[in-house]
Amino acid sequence: MKNQSNKESVRGTGNSAALCKFSSVKKGYYADPFIQYFVKKKEPVEPIMNRGFYMRVHAMDRLISQFLNANTDSSEGVQIIQLGGGKDTTFWRMRLSGENEVVNKLVWYEIDFPRTIQEKLRIISRVPKLQEPIVGWPKKALKKTSKGIELHSPDYHLICGDLRDTENLHKSLQEHGVNFEIPTLFISECVLVYVEPNLADKLLSYITETFKLPFLVMYEPTNPLDNFGKQMMTNLSKMGCPLLAIEQYNSIESQIKRFKKIGFNYVDVKNMKLLWDTLGKWEPENVDGQKERNRVIRLEWFDELEEWNMIMSHYFVLWAAKNDQISQEKFIKIFGL
Amino acid sequence: MDLDWCLEKLTKNPPEVLPEQVVKGITEQLKEALIYESNVAMVESPVSVVGDLHGQYYDLVELFRVGGECPETNYLFLGNYVDRGFYSVETISLLVCLKLHYPRRITLLRGNHESKGVTQVYGFYSECLRKYGNANVWKYFTDMFNYLQLAALIDEKIFCVHGGLSPSISSINQIRVLDRFQEIPPEGALTDLVWSDPDAVEQETKPSPRGAGHIFGSQLVDKFLQDNKINHIIRSNQLCMDGHQVLFSGKLITIWSAPNFCYRCGNVASILEVFKANNSLTLKYNTYTAAPENERIIPSLETTKEIPDYFK
Questions:
Q1: pTM
Q2: Name one GO biological process term (chain A) (predicted).
Q3: A244-253: average pLDDT
């Protein structure tokens, strides 16, 4: 019998992710000077979590870069809409690296539970470094709404919402200037899997029906059918954050079918274990891939090799696009693999 | 040292940890006993060989239920008693007391987690801090780890070690003359014995992706068996979904004794009985699953981390 999905537990997965990311950064896997502000009890996590979150962030970053680089010619710029991003810091990391400047304009939206948005705003209000890139902070940026305080600055919006409520989500996006005609990337980093599949599909259909040039990157668990997968289902269920969508979409093949049915003409998926095994081969041309792989391996003892292979083969990244004008070759391959 | 009293506390449900001074006493006593023992323990069959336990106390209890209680059954443990699970303290305390009480019935080898450095990363240090309020007990146990034997020979025919072979060791006598009374170094023969893994395909001996030890193939195994006139190698170190794995036509066996490892892997566990039948050494696997949910108590942890953890 499945345990009920507990909203607080689902919301709590964002804190868990932030802690693991912080630990990974502290150990030297990658750079993020902002995540420290979003973690209360700073404890190291196991090497398998450090390395796993490094791979997650690394893969998602590459896909976001791919989106930006594919749309540098959009005269009105692009939008990124992060679904349930929690305490994610990509907005700040991108401005630090200057990557947002490869496009003419980048407007960043985040939609999450009201409590999460309030927590994020409370943290921003304490840290000047986080306020710096937010135009109009605080008076012109903070707005009181019926759902709570939201952030609405020209290129950064934090919106209180529920991904299961597509109608109100649409209203919020419309109200805050979303352009439905320009390239828009939706990010779902371990989010939609916690939502009932029919409601998740409703949101995905809304995206393909309402946006002219939607793109989507998704990171999620998969394969609940083997022993590891069954145990994962049981454990997460007990923690109050059951993987509601995973049984209906229990494989990479079924996810590809799902996205194509919903209206994305280009869909590609890569298993995280494959990405780890080929780490070094999908770096941008100016990066020495083998050096990066060796660097990561040398960061700490890694005594969880068998578990690592198991857990990584139960996660994937997915890249989807709906675009009739761009050639298939440009989109079908991600990571050059 | 009243070992019966210690064993009574440790076999309650839930088990009770021993007072700090008692831990000091039992670890000192075991060190004194082990200092005279060779690096290579000579063990006689019948004996049951046990792989990694990793603090899974309730599954150790299950193991004794399945394999037979000590001292009625002889046991050879291949190391990795601590880290990863919730009950490393109770697990190692129980095994130390059993070893002191029945020294000829149980052999405890050293694994790569019987190390000051590794236990600070993988949970034993934090667990000691949580259960005792300070690091003294961790220090007593990890000082004692430096005395654990490195390998065993069953009936002079079966070589047992935690990890595997070393490119710097061709003879068991070389193991006998190593200085084992130290923290596991970053590299070298001692390190290889507790960190190495076999590879079914690889012929060349290479550095291990674990960050210590080596990967070795059938060539090194064949040579080692031949030069030392032995028939099998039994080792642990690698998680096996089926509890055990056999390589090189039976010459090398991996045994894994932590079922549903870290409450995450969904694997079964095995122990390996070695006994004489019709005058020849026979190997029999005893496979078991994790102790039932209603017979274990998962402690609440004062930590932000959720155990087991996933990429949530």
A1: 0.91
A2: methylation
A3: 90
